[in-house]
Amino acid sequence: MRTEVDLSREAELSAVTLRLNVTEEQVDELRKHNTVGAAQLVSVSDRVTTAQRETEVLQVRLRAGEATVNELKAKSEAQSALLTQINSRLETAESQNAGFQIRLTAGDSLISELQTNTTVLERRLSDSDSLMMELHTEHSELKVRLRVGEKQLEDLKAQNTVLSFRVNVTDDRLQQIINTTSDEPKVAFSAGLTDSGAVGPFDKETTLTFSKTISNIGRAYNQTTGVFTAPVRGVYFFSFTAADYLKGYMGLYLYRNNQPLIFNLALNDHGGYASTSNSVALRLEEGDRVRLSLPASYRLYDDSRNFSVFSGFLLFPL
Question: Is residue 146 assigned to a domain?
Fold first, then answer.
């Protein structure tokens, strides 16, 4: 008969057997797991090997890439330096270009001014050529007029000689009259027109003022107004000579009071010195006035040589 010890052993043995069975099952499972794990481990190992190989390839490629990167960095730095240099040169070129543009603008403006000046100079040159031709023509005309004027001057000198002779004769006759009529009034005058050259033309008829008094016995001639006033009733003798040197009409009136008595007219068609003269004996009442008048648009000439002269004297009282 089994004892409690035996039962206890059996129970323990059963428990151990059960545990052994469980353990064996666990071992089988672990073996299975180990087999799978070994397969997986082989696969992992293969993958690790592949990964190592890939890593080595990647490391090689990385080192190659790093070398390439270094080369690219070096090239980039060189290109950056070159770019900096190019930018500097570009800035310099832009600055020079701005300067060139300013100079070009100034040059364009200067060219425009020069073109304008050239046009003006060409116009002035054309005008100068025309003026030169006109001056040449005028010079030729002046030569002709000078020759004519010289001839006229000679003629005037001859006329002045004749007039001087006539004046001397008149002075002699005047002196004779003065000597024979010492108790009678003594009236005589001669006056030149002007020293200023041309007189006229005027827009209207103008009384001539012979302002250069040569003689004025009796003070009957007023050199300010150009009027002779008879101091006594009598017969008076008047003469005048007028000259000019330009082409055109010249002439004058001799008035007694407001009545024109003589009109002398001459046409100077050659442009040299020319003259006209006349004389008259007038019966005047005391206070009558005698004057010479220049018609409108006419002109005369006189200078220090006395080309134009107005004279008069009392022949005898009545």
Answer: no
Q: How far apart are CA 220 and CA 312, in angstroms?
A: 10
- How far from each other are the two terminal CA atoms of the chain, in whole angstroms? 231
Structure tokens at 235: 């017969």
Q: Which residues, other chains included, contact 56 with Cβ-Cβ below 8 Å and sequence gap of 6+? A: none
Task: Verify that 273 and 206 share a domain, yes or no.
Answer: yes
188 in the same domain as 124: no
Q: Which residue has the higher pLDDT, 175 or 96?
A: 96
> In this structure, how many other beta carbons lie within 10 angstroms of the beta carbon of residue 160?
19
Asked if residue 200 belongs to a domain, the reply is yes
Measured distance CA(263)–CA(61) in Å, rounded: 135
CA-wise closest residue to 208 among 299, 307, 286: 299
Q: Which domain holds residue 292?
A: 181-317
pLDDT digits (tens, 9 = 90+) for 197-224: 989 889 999 999 999 999 999 999 999 9
How far is Cα of residue 20 from the mean position of the Cα atoms in its chain? 133
Instruction: Confirm whether 93 is domain-assigned.
Output: yes
Q: Which of 112, 128, 144 is the last residue of a domain?
A: 128
| Residue written as token pair 């068609």 | 269
Structural domain count of the chain: 2
Q: Write down the pLDDT at residue 210.
A: 95
- In terms of Cβ atoms closer than 10 Å to its own Cβ (0-12, 13-18, 19+), residue 71 is exposed
- Summarised one tens digit per residue, pLDDT across range 12-59 is 888 888 888 888 888 788 788 778 767 776 776 778 688 678 768 778
Same domain, 119 and 7: yes
- Residue-wise pLDDT tens digits, 217-259: 999 999 999 999 999 999 999 999 999 888 777 789 999 999 9
Q: What is the C-alpha to C-alpha distance for residues 275 and 156, in angstroms, rounded to an integer?
A: 8
Query: Could you tell me if 292 and 188 lie in one domain?
Result: yes
